């Protein structure tokens, strides 16, 4: 039989004799029971995954410390499946993988399981997958990099399942979403490059017209205008967010009579392709051309040179999406449009601009 540790549970209720009582949390119970947070949550929700003796120990500590379930937890009691659906563009996407980690950890903290589905970046498949998850009676759904976006609005009543989007790629508003500050991130990149003396700055975007690209390109143009630099349409080219199309786009920029001295890439995968194309021409980064990305994926700091990029707190975005989804499932108010701050990470792929000499790629080879 579990015996209370002297002085420990009482310390949760009163501190220094005079302080007001503090409501114990799941973390407090986990510490006293020497188990993980998810184990406490499962035990308090009578999950069969917890051994009976451990569950009894946890419930006893909860009773002794005066623990009361939060409003969110109370709202979740009436749910039947205790599952949520997570739809990603592809399981191999590093961005989606980080977001998924944040979603799963937060869901597990409340004793929920996560069903993972792949949309293959196909709007029709995404919508079909969401409907299938709803039919399987998941209690809520999170969609990363949605290609459907606002089209979910007329489906919400039909599906009767709360939905939260992470980095919605569909231009337009959605009821509940978590987005990176695209404009601020792109502006920080441009301010950095212009501060280094760059005037011929190229932009490799995404030809699919996604919201993130629209916002980043708009901020790119605005930064040029504010610096008194004329926008050159030849320097704004399109890929598809991957390395192969980025290589082709970068080669096109390098074939210009006046090459750019810097290139601002839609994301890190695009930057990776651009850097490969630049190296293949015998050009140096950043001595000849500076390169920036957006995302700060796990490999960004290991490139040669390490990539200057905009950090997206991907795991935290997954946590926020899951927290907001819990509020929706419990009938509480939730932030409709949550915007996460972007942070510029300066590394070795950017440097001071050289005076444009108008040399062709062939004459610049070593």
What report would you give on this structure?
The chain has 366 residues and is α/β, with parallel strands linked by helices. It folds into three domains: 59 residues, lambda repressor-like DNA-binding domains (434 Repressor (Amino-terminal Domain), Orthogonal Bundle), CATH 1.10.260.40; 120 residues, 3-Layer(aba) Sandwich (Rossmann fold), CATH 3.40.50; 146 residues, Rossmann fold. Helix content is 40%, strand content 14%. The chain is built from 14 helices and twelve strands. The strands form three sheets. The chain has a six-stranded parallel β-sheet, sandwiched between helices. A four-stranded parallel β-sheet has the order 7-6-8-9, with helices on both faces. A two-stranded antiparallel ribbon has the order 10-12. Helix 2 packs across helix 3, helix 6 packs across helix 13 and helix 9 runs parallel beside helix 10. The termini are far apart. The N terminus and C terminus are likely disordered.
């Amino acid at each position: 039989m579990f015996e209370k540790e002297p002085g420990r549970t009482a310390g949760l209720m009163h501190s220094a004799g005079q302080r007001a009582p503090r409501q114990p949390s799941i973390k407090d119970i986990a510490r006293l029971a020497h188990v993980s947070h998810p184990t406490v949550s499962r035990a308090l929700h009578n999950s069969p995954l917890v051994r009976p003796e451990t569950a009894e120990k946890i419930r006893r500590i909860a009773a002794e410390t005066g623990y009361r379930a939060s409003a969110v937890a109370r709202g979740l009691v009436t749910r039947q499946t205790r599952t949520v659906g997570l739809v990603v563009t592809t399981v191999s996407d590093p961005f989606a993988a980080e977001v998924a980690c944040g979603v799963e950890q937060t869901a597990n903290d409340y004793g929920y399981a996560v069903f993972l589905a792949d949309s293959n970046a196909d709007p029709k498949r995404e919508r079909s997958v969401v409907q299938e998850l709803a039919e399987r009676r998941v209690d809520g759904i999170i969609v990363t990099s949605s290609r459907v976006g606002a089209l979910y609005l007329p489906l919400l009543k039909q599906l009767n399942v709360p939905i939260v989007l992470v980095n919605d790629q569909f231009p337009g508003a959605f009821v509940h979403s978590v987005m990176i500050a695209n404009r601020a991130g792109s502006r920080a990149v441009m301010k950095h490059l212009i501060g280094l003396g760059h005037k011929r700055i190229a932009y490799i975007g995404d030809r699919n017209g996604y919201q993130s690209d629209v916002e980043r390109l708009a901020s790119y143009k605005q930064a040029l205008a504010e610096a008194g630099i004329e926008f050159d349409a030849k320097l704004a080219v399109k890929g598809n967010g991957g390395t192969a199309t980025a290589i082709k786009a970068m080669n096109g920029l390098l074939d210009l009579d006046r090459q750019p001295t810097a290139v601002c890439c839609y994301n890190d995968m695009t930057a990776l392709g651009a850097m490969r194309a630049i190296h293949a021409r015998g050009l140096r980064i950043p001595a000849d051309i500076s390169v920036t990305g957006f995302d700060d994926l796990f490999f960004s700091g290991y490139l040669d040179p390490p990539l200057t990029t905009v950090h997206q707190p991907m795991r935290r975005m997954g946590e926020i999406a899951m927290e907001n989804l819990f509020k929706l499932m419990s009938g509480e108010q939730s932030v409709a449009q949550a915007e996460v701050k972007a942070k510029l990470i300066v590394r070795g792929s950017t440097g001071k601009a050289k005076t444009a000499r108008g040399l062709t790629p062939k004459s610049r080879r070593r």
